[in-house]
Write a structure and sequence with these properties.
single chain, 74 residues, mainly alpha, 76% helix
Length: 74
């Protein structure tokens, strides 16, 4: 499996769950679905980091995003 793609999907899911958490907290509700989504995103990111020898560095992320988009977009 492509660990770069898994990392990018995990980051996107985590970023999209932040507004849901904030919405639930501002409405004084428990952010149950948002918490599950964040756990899934964290699991994907952890899986990607363990799957790549040497892991990832923060400076590599922009290049990874561009490469994954270029690889999977026609």
């Amino acid at each position: 499996m492509d660990t770069d793609l898994v990392l990018l999907v995990g980051i996107v899911i985590a970023a999209l769950s932040v507004p849901s958490v904030l919405s639930a907290l501002s409405d004084k509700r428990a952010p149950r679905a948002s918490a599950i989504t964040i756990l899934i995103a964290g699991g994907l990111i952890l899986f990607a980091m363990q799957g790549k020898p040497g892991g990832y560095r923060l400076a590599e992320l922009p290049g990874i995003v561009v490469n994954v988009i270029a690889r999977y977009m026609p």
